[in-house]
Amino acid sequence: MGKWTVEELTPGKTVEATFWPNAAEGSAFKLRATHLDGRRTPKVVLSNDERIVAGVPCVVRVVVVHKPEREDRGRIEVEFVGRAPFRIEGVYLDPVVSKKLQVCLEGGLNILLDGPQGCGKTVLARSIADSLGMAFVFFNCGAVVEASDFFVTIQVRASASGAPVTDFIKTDILIAIEQAADHPETRYLVFLDELNRCQESARNALMPALDATRRVFHPIENTFIPIPDNVQFIAAVNRGREFSGTFGIDAAQLDRFAPLQMTYPPPHAEQDILARRHPELSATNLEIIVAVADAVRNAPDLPGTLSVRATDEACVYLAHPLFAADGKRALPEILKTSFCGRFTGRWDDVTSDAGAVWALIRKALATFQIAVEEPGSKPGSKRGDA
Ligand SMILES: Nc1ncnc2c1ncn2[C@@H]1O[C@H](COP(=O)(O)OP(=O)(O)O)[C@@H](O)[C@H]1O
Ligand SMILES: [Mg+2]
User: Fold this and answer.
1) What average pLDDT does the chain have?
2) Rounded to an integer, what distance in angstroms lies between the CA atom of residue 181 and that of residue 231?
3) Considering only CA atoms, which residue is closest to atom 20 of ligand 1?
4) Using one digit for the tens of pLDDT, what is the confidence trace for 203-223?
5) Residue ending a domain, choose from 83, 107, 122
6) Rounded to whole angstroms, how far apart are CA atoms 317 and 335?
7) Taking residues 292-313, what's their average pLDDT?
């Protein structure tokens, strides 16, 4: 797409731009851009809107175009509308979820990412921090038993005399809360991964602290300390397709987080993710792997699901010289391992989940003209690629 025409840039139009400090001498405008939506503008784009941060992509609205009749002069004045949508290299994010996420981040709301395992909650949280220039604090909640475990770990060691001494060691969360108070200019993103896996009582003690009271007990200083406003929390919970109950989070506590539902990337997006990581694999092979995974994910009555890790693992096998020579014919064996292996039971036990998955894999592979032997057929008779 070429340069904008003045006629296209009517007042009220919203577009994306990245501004930089305006170096032009004597100009009344502090910020300047030369492209809107990636296209060159016929006149310089200027703004004094305080909400625009230099170097950070944002969405702006055209307010007025000065001297529209002249080719060589004039300016386009714009005002800030909002932060530009996330566009994170290598991470797929549903556009609707992306919008909601921005609203929550701008409003300083705590966010609960809720989705099946391996749908990208962790990579997303990390990328948000990267793209917004926030300091990222990763905390896995799996080992938390008591609420204080979020803030300190207790270590017992022997003193010189041999008597046991208890050391309190600050967790990254506590360190971030302390640092945030000293560095109000830095925004901290504390990511509470797998919040569903910690003890329910600990979780329920934590939630109001994050939101309603915004203060936490500092077990070393033995006092409550405030959580500064420049600390934002994102929690992630894994749940399968069952969507049953609230994984032990009290409804009133859950209410303090803005929940965002995530799902697996659509097949085309997953193929793109995998193609970027495994450029040596053919588009057809990637299509097959993703299509089979999609069939398993969409099958009714299967507890558990397949993450993007599972499709990624299949790609790692297929790209390896030990399997690559067989091409497509290696797929049944690989999927048996990477897909069936993630369910209970065995691939050759038709009554088990893994067996049900194997049946789904065979059926899906057949649509790509890849035939597979049935479980129970005699070993030695053309294995893997009948
Ligand atoms: N939407 C996505 N975009 C890019 N990569 C993804 C996406 N979802 C999953 N992945 C990849 O799959 C793996 C697992 O993702 P992760 O973020 O750890 O999942 P979760 O935290 O939801 O369990 C990672 O290697 C990640 O890069
Ligand atoms: Mg995760």
Assistant:
1) 87
2) 9
3) 118
4) 887 887 887 788 888 888 899
5) 83
6) 10
7) 91
